[in-house]
Amino acid sequence: MPEADRSLMAHLLRRAGFGATFQELDRYCQLGYGAAVEELLHPEQQPAIEEDVLERYYIDWKESRNIEGALTESVYRMNAYAGLRPLQEKIALFWHGVFATGLAKVLHEKTMLNQIDLFRESGLGNFRDLLLQLAKDPAMIFWLDNNFNHKDAPNENWGRELLELFSLGVGMDGHENYTEDDVKNAARAFTGWTIDDDNVASLPFGKLPWRFCYLPEDHDEGEKTFMGHTGNFNGEDIIDIIAQQPATARFISRHLYNFFVADEPQVPAWQHTPPGDPEAIRILEEEYFRSNYNIRSMLKVLFNSDFFKSDQARFAKVKSPAEVVVGTLHLLGDFTFPKRGIFDVALGCRYMGQDLLNPPSVEGWHTGEEWIDSGSLVERVNFVADQVGDIRQPGVREIVDALFDRTSELDPESIIDGCLELMGHVQLHEKNKNHLAGQIRSMLDRRSGSVSGSPGEHRLAEDTVLHCVLHCMKMIGSTREYQFA
Protein backbone atom coordinates (compact mmCIF):
# COMPACT_ATOMS: atom_id res chain seq x y z
CA MET A 1 0.00 0.00 0.00
CA PRO A 2 1.41 3.46 -0.84
CA GLU A 3 2.86 5.40 2.09
CA ALA A 4 0.23 8.15 1.78
CA ASP A 5 -2.58 5.57 2.04
CA ARG A 6 -0.89 3.91 5.00
CA SER A 7 -0.74 7.24 6.78
CA LEU A 8 -4.46 7.76 6.05
CA MET A 9 -5.26 4.31 7.43
CA ALA A 10 -3.37 5.13 10.63
CA HIS A 11 -5.41 8.34 10.88
CA LEU A 12 -8.65 6.38 10.52
CA LEU A 13 -7.66 3.91 13.23
CA ARG A 14 -6.67 6.69 15.64
CA ARG A 15 -10.09 8.30 15.26
CA ALA A 16 -12.34 5.24 14.85
CA GLY A 17 -10.40 3.41 17.55
CA PHE A 18 -7.40 3.87 19.80
CA GLY A 19 -4.67 3.60 17.19
CA ALA A 20 -3.19 0.45 15.72
CA THR A 21 -0.09 -1.70 16.08
CA PHE A 22 2.04 -1.95 12.96
CA GLN A 23 0.80 -5.53 12.44
CA GLU A 24 -2.83 -4.35 12.55
CA LEU A 25 -2.01 -1.53 10.19
CA ASP A 26 -0.56 -4.07 7.75
CA ARG A 27 -3.82 -6.05 7.85
CA TYR A 28 -6.09 -3.05 7.37
CA CYS A 29 -3.95 -1.78 4.51
CA GLN A 30 -4.37 -5.12 2.76
CA LEU A 31 -8.14 -4.74 3.15
CA GLY A 32 -8.18 -1.26 1.64
CA TYR A 33 -9.67 1.92 3.07
CA GLY A 34 -13.31 1.33 2.09
CA ALA A 35 -13.36 -2.24 3.40
CA ALA A 36 -11.63 -1.13 6.59
CA VAL A 37 -14.34 1.47 7.21
CA GLU A 38 -17.03 -1.18 6.70
CA GLU A 39 -15.34 -3.57 9.13
CA LEU A 40 -15.02 -0.86 11.76
CA LEU A 41 -18.67 0.12 11.36
CA HIS A 42 -19.82 -3.46 12.01
CA PRO A 43 -18.06 -4.52 15.23
CA GLU A 44 -20.64 -7.25 15.85
CA GLN A 45 -18.98 -9.26 13.07
CA GLN A 46 -15.79 -9.59 15.14
CA PRO A 47 -15.41 -12.03 18.06
CA ALA A 48 -16.36 -10.95 21.55
CA ILE A 49 -14.13 -11.22 24.59
CA GLU A 50 -14.67 -14.25 26.83
CA GLU A 51 -16.91 -13.07 29.65
CA ASP A 52 -16.25 -16.15 31.78
CA VAL A 53 -12.51 -15.47 31.70
CA LEU A 54 -13.09 -11.85 32.67
CA GLU A 55 -15.32 -12.93 35.54
CA ARG A 56 -12.80 -15.50 36.74
CA TYR A 57 -9.90 -13.06 36.96
CA TYR A 58 -11.84 -9.93 37.96
CA ILE A 59 -14.27 -11.19 40.57
CA ASP A 60 -15.13 -7.64 41.64
CA TRP A 61 -16.38 -6.92 38.13
CA LYS A 62 -19.21 -9.44 38.48
CA GLU A 63 -20.43 -7.97 41.72
CA SER A 64 -19.33 -4.43 40.91
CA ARG A 65 -19.61 -3.38 44.53
CA ASN A 66 -17.10 -0.57 44.15
CA ILE A 67 -15.48 1.81 41.70
CA GLU A 68 -12.34 -0.34 41.48
CA GLY A 69 -14.23 -3.21 39.86
CA ALA A 70 -16.23 -0.93 37.57
CA LEU A 71 -13.23 1.09 36.40
CA THR A 72 -11.17 -2.06 35.92
CA GLU A 73 -13.83 -3.55 33.67
CA SER A 74 -14.26 -0.35 31.65
CA VAL A 75 -10.58 0.10 30.82
CA TYR A 76 -9.99 -3.61 30.30
CA ARG A 77 -12.84 -3.79 27.77
CA MET A 78 -11.60 -0.74 25.88
CA ASN A 79 -8.13 -2.21 25.68
CA ALA A 80 -9.21 -5.79 24.92
CA TYR A 81 -11.49 -4.62 22.11
CA ALA A 82 -9.06 -2.02 20.73
CA GLY A 83 -7.83 -4.53 18.16
CA LEU A 84 -11.12 -6.37 17.58
CA ARG A 85 -13.99 -3.91 17.91
CA PRO A 86 -12.35 -0.51 18.27
CA LEU A 87 -15.30 1.58 17.08
CA GLN A 88 -17.65 -0.18 19.50
CA GLU A 89 -15.56 1.05 22.40
CA LYS A 90 -14.95 4.46 20.83
CA ILE A 91 -18.65 5.11 20.29
CA ALA A 92 -19.40 4.02 23.88
CA LEU A 93 -16.81 6.55 25.07
CA PHE A 94 -18.38 9.16 22.79
CA TRP A 95 -21.89 8.73 24.20
CA HIS A 96 -20.54 8.53 27.75
CA GLY A 97 -19.27 12.07 27.20
CA VAL A 98 -22.50 13.32 25.59
CA PHE A 99 -24.98 11.60 27.94
CA ALA A 100 -22.76 12.23 30.94
CA THR A 101 -23.85 10.22 33.98
CA GLY A 102 -21.71 9.82 37.10
CA LEU A 103 -21.12 7.49 40.01
CA ALA A 104 -20.72 10.48 42.32
CA LYS A 105 -24.52 10.56 42.51
CA VAL A 106 -25.70 7.22 41.14
CA LEU A 107 -23.53 5.21 43.58
CA HIS A 108 -24.51 1.98 41.87
CA GLU A 109 -21.65 0.59 39.81
CA LYS A 110 -23.45 -2.23 38.01
CA THR A 111 -26.22 0.12 36.92
CA MET A 112 -23.60 2.50 35.52
CA LEU A 113 -21.87 -0.33 33.65
CA ASN A 114 -25.22 -1.33 32.16
CA GLN A 115 -25.53 2.17 30.74
CA ILE A 116 -22.12 1.85 29.06
CA ASP A 117 -23.26 -1.52 27.67
CA LEU A 118 -26.28 0.30 26.22
CA PHE A 119 -23.92 2.64 24.39
CA ARG A 120 -21.86 -0.31 23.11
CA GLU A 121 -24.91 -2.16 21.82
CA SER A 122 -26.96 0.72 20.42
CA GLY A 123 -24.50 3.56 19.97
CA LEU A 124 -24.14 3.00 16.22
CA GLY A 125 -27.85 2.57 15.60
CA ASN A 126 -30.86 4.86 15.31
CA PHE A 127 -30.54 8.03 17.39
CA ARG A 128 -34.26 8.18 18.13
CA ASP A 129 -34.17 4.62 19.50
CA LEU A 130 -31.02 5.36 21.51
CA LEU A 131 -32.65 8.41 23.07
CA LEU A 132 -35.69 6.34 24.01
CA GLN A 133 -33.50 3.69 25.64
CA LEU A 134 -31.64 6.43 27.49
CA ALA A 135 -34.93 7.81 28.83
CA LYS A 136 -35.60 4.35 30.31
CA ASP A 137 -32.05 3.85 31.59
CA PRO A 138 -32.09 3.55 35.41
CA ALA A 139 -28.74 5.31 35.85
CA MET A 140 -29.98 8.31 33.85
CA ILE A 141 -33.37 8.34 35.57
CA PHE A 142 -31.69 8.50 38.98
CA TRP A 143 -28.92 10.89 37.79
CA LEU A 144 -31.47 13.47 36.59
CA ASP A 145 -34.18 12.84 39.19
CA ASN A 146 -36.93 11.53 36.94
CA ASN A 147 -37.79 9.06 39.71
CA PHE A 148 -38.95 12.21 41.56
CA ASN A 149 -40.98 13.45 38.59
CA HIS A 150 -44.65 12.98 39.56
CA LYS A 151 -47.85 14.15 37.92
CA ASP A 152 -48.76 16.27 40.98
CA ALA A 153 -45.16 17.48 41.52
CA PRO A 154 -43.22 17.63 38.23
CA ASN A 155 -39.42 17.62 38.32
CA GLU A 156 -37.95 19.33 35.25
CA ASN A 157 -34.34 18.16 35.59
CA TRP A 158 -34.50 15.34 33.01
CA GLY A 159 -36.75 17.28 30.65
CA ARG A 160 -34.40 20.26 30.66
CA GLU A 161 -31.19 18.32 30.11
CA LEU A 162 -32.82 16.16 27.45
CA LEU A 163 -33.33 19.32 25.40
CA GLU A 164 -30.28 21.34 26.42
CA LEU A 165 -27.50 18.76 26.49
CA PHE A 166 -28.73 15.52 24.94
CA SER A 167 -30.57 16.40 21.73
CA LEU A 168 -31.25 20.00 20.65
CA GLY A 169 -28.80 22.26 22.42
CA VAL A 170 -29.76 25.68 23.75
CA GLY A 171 -29.75 27.19 20.28
CA MET A 172 -28.15 27.46 16.87
CA ASP A 173 -27.48 30.26 14.39
CA GLY A 174 -28.15 32.79 17.13
CA HIS A 175 -31.66 31.48 17.91
CA GLU A 176 -33.06 29.49 20.83
CA ASN A 177 -34.12 25.93 20.10
CA TYR A 178 -36.81 25.57 22.76
CA THR A 179 -38.76 27.49 25.38
CA GLU A 180 -39.37 27.12 29.10
CA ASP A 181 -42.86 25.86 28.29
CA ASP A 182 -41.28 23.11 26.15
CA VAL A 183 -39.19 22.06 29.17
CA LYS A 184 -42.22 21.97 31.44
CA ASN A 185 -44.35 19.97 29.03
CA ALA A 186 -41.51 17.53 28.31
CA ALA A 187 -41.22 16.94 32.06
CA ARG A 188 -44.98 16.31 32.30
CA ALA A 189 -44.75 13.77 29.46
CA PHE A 190 -42.13 11.76 31.36
CA THR A 191 -44.03 11.53 34.64
CA GLY A 192 -44.38 7.91 35.74
CA TRP A 193 -41.08 6.88 34.09
CA THR A 194 -39.16 5.64 37.11
CA ILE A 195 -37.11 2.80 38.58
CA ASP A 196 -37.98 -0.01 40.96
CA ASP A 197 -36.92 0.23 44.60
CA ASP A 198 -33.41 -0.94 45.37
CA ASN A 199 -34.47 -2.95 48.40
CA VAL A 200 -32.68 -6.23 47.65
CA ALA A 201 -29.85 -7.15 50.01
CA SER A 202 -26.35 -7.08 48.51
CA LEU A 203 -25.41 -10.52 49.80
CA PRO A 204 -24.74 -13.13 48.58
CA PHE A 205 -24.78 -11.98 44.93
CA GLY A 206 -23.81 -8.32 45.20
CA LYS A 207 -25.94 -5.37 44.15
CA LEU A 208 -28.68 -6.15 41.67
CA PRO A 209 -28.96 -3.57 38.89
CA TRP A 210 -31.91 -1.23 38.97
CA ARG A 211 -34.69 -1.69 36.42
CA PHE A 212 -36.96 0.72 34.58
CA CYS A 213 -40.63 0.65 35.42
CA TYR A 214 -43.61 2.71 34.29
CA LEU A 215 -46.34 3.76 36.74
CA PRO A 216 -49.43 4.72 34.71
CA GLU A 217 -51.17 6.03 37.82
CA ASP A 218 -48.36 8.62 38.20
CA HIS A 219 -48.42 9.79 34.58
CA ASP A 220 -49.88 13.18 33.64
CA GLU A 221 -52.60 12.39 31.09
CA GLY A 222 -53.39 16.04 30.37
CA GLU A 223 -52.95 17.79 27.02
CA LYS A 224 -49.45 19.12 26.39
CA THR A 225 -47.97 21.49 23.82
CA PHE A 226 -44.38 20.78 22.86
CA MET A 227 -42.43 22.56 20.11
CA GLY A 228 -45.59 23.49 18.23
CA HIS A 229 -47.27 20.10 18.60
CA THR A 230 -50.27 19.51 20.87
CA GLY A 231 -51.62 16.25 22.24
CA ASN A 232 -51.79 13.88 25.18
CA PHE A 233 -48.09 13.18 24.87
CA ASN A 234 -46.01 10.64 26.73
CA GLY A 235 -42.21 10.47 26.76
CA GLU A 236 -41.97 8.51 23.53
CA ASP A 237 -43.98 11.18 21.70
CA ILE A 238 -41.58 13.86 22.96
CA ILE A 239 -38.60 11.90 21.66
CA ASP A 240 -40.31 11.42 18.28
CA ILE A 241 -40.75 15.20 17.96
CA ILE A 242 -37.17 15.87 19.07
CA ALA A 243 -35.71 13.47 16.51
CA GLN A 244 -37.45 15.33 13.68
CA GLN A 245 -35.92 18.73 14.49
CA PRO A 246 -33.23 20.36 12.31
CA ALA A 247 -31.59 21.48 15.56
CA THR A 248 -31.14 17.82 16.56
CA ALA A 249 -29.41 17.06 13.26
CA ARG A 250 -27.09 20.02 13.86
CA PHE A 251 -26.45 19.02 17.48
CA ILE A 252 -25.51 15.42 16.70
CA SER A 253 -23.47 16.41 13.64
CA ARG A 254 -21.39 18.90 15.62
CA HIS A 255 -20.79 16.34 18.36
CA LEU A 256 -19.62 13.72 15.83
CA TYR A 257 -17.39 16.26 14.11
CA ASN A 258 -15.91 17.38 17.42
CA PHE A 259 -15.17 13.82 18.53
CA PHE A 260 -14.02 12.24 15.27
CA VAL A 261 -12.67 15.08 13.10
CA ALA A 262 -11.47 18.27 14.83
CA ASP A 263 -11.93 20.05 18.14
CA GLU A 264 -14.91 22.43 18.24
CA PRO A 265 -15.81 25.08 20.84
CA GLN A 266 -17.55 23.75 23.93
CA VAL A 267 -21.26 22.93 23.68
CA PRO A 268 -22.57 26.01 25.61
CA ALA A 269 -21.06 28.25 22.90
CA TRP A 270 -22.78 26.55 19.97
CA GLN A 271 -25.83 28.84 19.92
CA HIS A 272 -23.73 31.83 18.88
CA THR A 273 -20.63 30.13 17.47
CA PRO A 274 -20.89 28.65 13.97
CA PRO A 275 -19.20 25.32 13.17
CA GLY A 276 -15.55 25.38 12.18
CA ASP A 277 -16.50 23.60 8.94
CA PRO A 278 -20.12 24.48 8.09
CA GLU A 279 -20.07 22.40 4.89
CA ALA A 280 -19.03 19.28 6.78
CA ILE A 281 -21.84 19.80 9.28
CA ARG A 282 -24.33 20.32 6.44
CA ILE A 283 -23.27 16.99 4.88
CA LEU A 284 -23.74 15.17 8.18
CA GLU A 285 -27.11 16.85 8.80
CA GLU A 286 -28.34 15.67 5.42
CA GLU A 287 -27.26 12.11 6.17
CA TYR A 288 -29.01 12.25 9.56
CA PHE A 289 -32.35 12.75 7.82
CA ARG A 290 -31.60 10.65 4.72
CA SER A 291 -30.74 7.62 6.88
CA ASN A 292 -33.64 8.13 9.29
CA TYR A 293 -31.36 9.24 12.17
CA ASN A 294 -28.79 6.42 11.78
CA ILE A 295 -25.45 7.07 13.48
CA ARG A 296 -23.64 4.30 11.57
CA SER A 297 -24.66 5.90 8.27
CA MET A 298 -23.50 9.31 9.44
CA LEU A 299 -20.12 7.90 10.44
CA LYS A 300 -19.76 6.11 7.11
CA VAL A 301 -20.20 9.45 5.36
CA LEU A 302 -17.82 11.10 7.82
CA PHE A 303 -14.99 8.55 7.51
CA ASN A 304 -15.21 8.58 3.70
CA SER A 305 -15.40 12.36 3.41
CA ASP A 306 -12.71 14.67 2.08
CA PHE A 307 -12.87 16.75 5.27
CA PHE A 308 -11.96 13.68 7.35
CA LYS A 309 -9.26 12.41 4.99
CA SER A 310 -7.55 15.77 4.55
CA ASP A 311 -4.04 16.40 5.84
CA GLN A 312 -5.41 19.27 7.93
CA ALA A 313 -7.59 16.87 9.93
CA ARG A 314 -4.66 14.70 11.02
CA PHE A 315 -3.24 15.36 14.48
CA ALA A 316 -5.82 18.16 14.81
CA LYS A 317 -7.45 16.79 17.98
CA VAL A 318 -6.11 16.58 21.51
CA LYS A 319 -6.40 12.99 22.70
CA SER A 320 -8.64 12.44 25.68
CA PRO A 321 -6.98 10.79 28.70
CA ALA A 322 -8.79 7.53 27.86
CA GLU A 323 -7.34 7.66 24.35
CA VAL A 324 -3.85 8.25 25.74
CA VAL A 325 -4.07 5.40 28.26
CA VAL A 326 -5.87 2.81 26.10
CA GLY A 327 -3.98 3.73 22.94
CA THR A 328 -0.65 3.31 24.70
CA LEU A 329 -1.66 0.01 26.35
CA HIS A 330 -2.83 -1.29 22.99
CA LEU A 331 0.41 -0.29 21.30
CA LEU A 332 2.36 -2.17 23.97
CA GLY A 333 0.20 -5.30 23.86
CA ASP A 334 -0.35 -5.10 27.61
CA PHE A 335 -3.45 -6.30 29.50
CA THR A 336 -4.77 -8.25 26.54
CA PHE A 337 -5.58 -10.96 29.09
CA PRO A 338 -6.98 -10.31 32.59
CA LYS A 339 -4.27 -9.85 35.18
CA ARG A 340 -3.58 -7.83 38.29
CA GLY A 341 -2.56 -4.21 38.03
CA ILE A 342 -4.93 -2.75 35.46
CA PHE A 343 -6.76 -0.67 38.08
CA ASP A 344 -3.55 1.20 38.85
CA VAL A 345 -3.08 1.84 35.14
CA ALA A 346 -6.73 2.83 34.70
CA LEU A 347 -6.29 5.48 37.38
CA GLY A 348 -4.06 7.24 34.87
CA CYS A 349 -7.24 8.50 33.17
CA ARG A 350 -8.35 10.09 36.44
CA TYR A 351 -4.97 11.69 37.08
CA MET A 352 -5.01 13.17 33.57
CA GLY A 353 -8.44 14.71 34.13
CA GLN A 354 -10.95 12.13 32.87
CA ASP A 355 -12.48 10.21 35.74
CA LEU A 356 -14.29 7.52 33.76
CA LEU A 357 -17.81 6.68 34.96
CA ASN A 358 -17.73 9.92 36.93
CA PRO A 359 -17.83 13.01 34.68
CA PRO A 360 -17.66 16.37 36.47
CA SER A 361 -21.26 17.34 35.63
CA VAL A 362 -24.17 16.56 33.31
CA GLU A 363 -22.32 18.70 30.75
CA GLY A 364 -19.61 16.07 30.54
CA TRP A 365 -15.93 16.74 30.01
CA HIS A 366 -14.72 19.79 28.13
CA THR A 367 -12.53 18.58 25.29
CA GLY A 368 -9.76 19.93 23.08
CA GLU A 369 -7.22 22.21 24.70
CA GLU A 370 -9.07 21.98 28.01
CA TRP A 371 -7.78 18.42 28.38
CA ILE A 372 -4.33 19.88 28.96
CA ASP A 373 -3.04 22.01 31.80
CA SER A 374 0.37 21.99 33.45
CA GLY A 375 -0.55 19.17 35.84
CA SER A 376 -2.35 16.88 33.43
CA LEU A 377 0.33 17.36 30.77
CA VAL A 378 3.00 16.06 33.15
CA GLU A 379 0.82 13.03 33.93
CA ARG A 380 0.26 12.34 30.22
CA VAL A 381 3.95 12.61 29.32
CA ASN A 382 5.15 10.54 32.28
CA PHE A 383 2.57 7.81 31.68
CA VAL A 384 3.50 7.31 28.04
CA ALA A 385 7.25 7.59 28.63
CA ASP A 386 7.16 5.02 31.44
CA GLN A 387 5.19 2.57 29.32
CA VAL A 388 6.95 2.81 25.94
CA GLY A 389 10.41 2.78 27.47
CA ASP A 390 9.90 -0.67 29.02
CA ILE A 391 11.51 -3.36 26.83
CA ARG A 392 9.64 -6.03 28.81
CA GLN A 393 6.40 -4.94 27.20
CA PRO A 394 5.63 -7.29 24.28
CA GLY A 395 4.69 -4.45 21.95
CA VAL A 396 7.91 -2.56 22.68
CA ARG A 397 9.94 -5.70 22.00
CA GLU A 398 8.12 -6.22 18.71
CA ILE A 399 8.76 -2.62 17.62
CA VAL A 400 12.46 -2.93 18.44
CA ASP A 401 12.79 -6.26 16.63
CA ALA A 402 10.92 -4.94 13.59
CA LEU A 403 13.17 -1.89 13.50
CA PHE A 404 16.30 -4.06 13.56
CA ASP A 405 14.86 -6.31 10.85
CA ARG A 406 13.86 -3.48 8.53
CA THR A 407 16.95 -1.30 8.75
CA SER A 408 20.52 -2.44 8.23
CA GLU A 409 22.13 0.87 9.24
CA LEU A 410 20.54 2.36 12.33
CA ASP A 411 21.60 6.00 12.10
CA PRO A 412 19.61 8.68 14.00
CA GLU A 413 17.31 9.44 11.07
CA SER A 414 16.55 5.76 10.45
CA ILE A 415 15.83 5.16 14.13
CA ILE A 416 13.44 8.11 14.30
CA ASP A 417 11.63 7.33 11.05
CA GLY A 418 11.28 3.68 12.02
CA CYS A 419 9.91 4.46 15.48
CA LEU A 420 7.47 7.03 14.09
CA GLU A 421 6.08 4.50 11.62
CA LEU A 422 5.95 1.57 14.01
CA MET A 423 4.29 3.64 16.76
CA GLY A 424 1.34 4.42 14.49
CA HIS A 425 2.64 6.77 11.81
CA VAL A 426 3.17 9.67 14.18
CA GLN A 427 4.19 12.84 12.34
CA LEU A 428 6.73 15.01 14.12
CA HIS A 429 7.27 18.69 13.42
CA GLU A 430 10.59 19.11 11.62
CA LYS A 431 12.04 21.14 14.49
CA ASN A 432 11.19 18.39 17.00
CA LYS A 433 12.54 15.75 14.67
CA ASN A 434 15.86 17.56 14.23
CA HIS A 435 16.18 18.09 17.98
CA LEU A 436 15.57 14.38 18.63
CA ALA A 437 18.09 13.42 15.94
CA GLY A 438 20.67 15.54 17.71
CA GLN A 439 20.02 13.75 21.00
CA ILE A 440 20.38 10.31 19.45
CA ARG A 441 23.51 11.30 17.54
CA SER A 442 25.11 12.45 20.79
CA MET A 443 24.16 9.19 22.50
CA LEU A 444 25.67 7.15 19.69
CA ASP A 445 28.86 9.21 19.74
CA ARG A 446 29.26 8.82 23.49
CA ARG A 447 28.80 5.06 23.43
CA SER A 448 30.14 4.25 19.99
CA GLY A 449 31.09 0.67 19.24
CA SER A 450 32.14 -0.98 16.01
CA VAL A 451 29.97 -3.80 14.71
CA SER A 452 33.04 -5.20 12.93
CA GLY A 453 35.23 -5.52 16.03
CA SER A 454 35.38 -8.05 18.82
CA PRO A 455 32.24 -9.79 20.20
CA GLY A 456 32.35 -7.47 23.20
CA GLU A 457 32.37 -4.42 20.95
CA HIS A 458 29.49 -5.87 18.93
CA ARG A 459 27.45 -6.37 22.13
CA LEU A 460 28.19 -2.76 23.13
CA ALA A 461 26.99 -1.55 19.75
CA GLU A 462 23.69 -3.47 20.01
CA ASP A 463 23.10 -2.25 23.55
CA THR A 464 23.84 1.30 22.47
CA VAL A 465 21.38 1.15 19.59
CA LEU A 466 18.72 -0.46 21.79
CA HIS A 467 19.21 2.30 24.36
CA CYS A 468 18.81 4.90 21.60
CA VAL A 469 15.68 3.24 20.23
CA LEU A 470 14.01 3.15 23.65
CA HIS A 471 14.99 6.76 24.26
CA CYS A 472 13.55 7.69 20.88
CA MET A 473 10.24 5.98 21.67
CA LYS A 474 10.02 7.73 25.03
CA MET A 475 10.70 11.09 23.44
CA ILE A 476 8.11 10.51 20.71
CA GLY A 477 5.57 9.57 23.37
CA SER A 478 6.37 12.84 25.13
CA THR A 479 5.80 15.03 22.10
CA ARG A 480 2.86 17.25 21.35
CA GLU A 481 2.20 15.20 18.22
CA TYR A 482 1.74 11.90 20.12
CA GLN A 483 -0.65 13.65 22.50
CA PHE A 484 -2.80 14.57 19.48
CA ALA A 485 -4.87 12.20 17.35
3D structure, described in words:
This protein has 485 residues and is mainly alpha-helical. Among the domains are: 54-75 and 100-311, no CATH class; 394-477, no CATH class. It has 25 helices and 6 strands. It has helices spanning 3-16, 22-31, 33-41, 51-57, 59-63, 67-81, 86-98, 103-106, 109-122, 127-135, 138-143, 157-164, 180-189, 235-243, 246-260, 278-290, 295-303, 306-309, 321-332, 342-351, 374-388, 394-406, 412-422, 430-446, 455-477; strands at 171-172, 175-176, 193-195, 212-214, 224-226, 229-231. The strands form 3 sheets. It has a two-stranded antiparallel ribbon. Strand 5 and strand 6 (229-231) form a beta hairpin. It is elongated, with a radius of gyration of 25 Å. Mean pLDDT is 90; it is low at 449-460.
What is the radius of gyration?
25 Å
Instruction: Trace the largest sheet across and list its strands.
Output: 1-2
Q: What structural category characterises the helix and strand content?
A: mainly alpha
Overall pLDDT: 90
Question: In this structure, how is the largest beta sheet organized?
Answer: 2 strands, antiparallel
State the helical fraction: 55-70%
Net shape = elongated
Count of DSSP E strands? 6
